[in-house]
Each structure stands twice: as C-alpha cells, then as structure tokens.
Amino acid sequence: MHLGRVIGTVVATEKTPDLEGVRFLIVQPLTRDLANRGRPVIAADGVHMAGPGELIYYVGSREAAQAMPEPFVPVDHAVVGIVDQLAVEPLPAVKKSAARRPAAKKSSAKKPEPKE
Amino acid sequence: MKIGRVAGTVVSTISASIFDHQRLLFCDLLTPSGEPTGDYTIAVDVVDAGAGETVLILDEGTGARQIMGQTVAPIRAVVVGIIDEIDL
Description:
Number of domains of chain A: 1
CATH class of chain A: Mainly Beta
Largest interface: A-B, 35 and 32 residues
CATH superfamily of chain A: EutN/Ccml
Oligomer: heterodimer
Structural class of chain B: mainly beta
Strand content of chain A: 25-35%
CATH architecture of chain B: Beta Barrel
C-alpha cells in the first residue's frame, strides 16, 4: 500500500453493472515525504468517506477489487484507509558521511570561539 | 518477499475492515546491502516489529490474506518477520 492524496472525483453514469454505487477518486500517489510521485490514478473509494484533499492509503492490482462489496469487479486501485496520523522517521543517512563532514567542520570551527 | 526498515506508523480510524485493530507500519524498502531503494510500502504488522527494525515484507495478496485468515480482503503487504542478519 502507498500513500496518496485525493485531488478530485470522477463521475461515470454509464459503467459496467458491477460498479454501480462505486465512487471514483483521483488519487495523486505520494513519496514518503508527501511529495507527488508519478501520475495520478483513478481509484475506487473502498471506505466510502474519502474526499478531496484527504491523505489516504490505497492498494493496487487485484487486491483493489476486494475492497469493493462485490470483490470481482474491474477495479485496479482502491482507497482502503484515511490517514489520521503519520509518524515517519527521516531516512537514515547511509554512506553519506561526506554530507556530515562539513557539519563536523563547522562545530570544530565554533569550538575555538568560546576559548577566545 | 522484500526487505524493509520500519520508519514509522500510519494511524487510521476510517479504513477497510481488514485493518481494524491492526498496526500499520510505514516501511522503507532496502536493497540486500541495507541501502534504501527510495521506495516504501505500508504493511500490516503481525510480528510486533518496532521502528528502526529491519523486517521481511510479504507483498503478495493471497499469502497476505492467508496470514490474516481472510479469503477476501484488500490487503497485500504484511510484515512477516524481523531480520536479525543478512549475509551477502
């Protein structure tokens, strides 16, 4: 599952009978930092409560159809939850010691100041 | 199966019923050498994994539903193990 932001809705009157009553949302996939990632997708609303602007998580592929009341429907993305709280640690700096070095230099440069 | 590192949790009250009373973990996916691939997944926790732990993630629907004891559910990713060591 991935994070996404609901950016709109899609209304289709003529559709395959199994999709009667299913709401469709335009979902912008997001990165871990909540930046846009790739193109928006059209996802069925599996929670019946998601609306534009909301941070959600969605499931793709065949599992998406199983979020629907009738599980064998032509749906390839479905919103399966609305995010209330997201607590994500920043990515650990792996093999980025080069990025740390300037900071270390700054701290060492500051140290003489109090001595003066 | 994928290797990931637990970066945090996702809290959600309005969700598909399969996620009721389940912990959702936000996992950064890793290469076998332990570097982040840049991708992530949100997975259900069945092994009580904590933040910072390297975990084994099943990303396949049928197996995930089998673990959750369901035949029909919109679930695909499950944290199924905590990795102690990777030997390359």
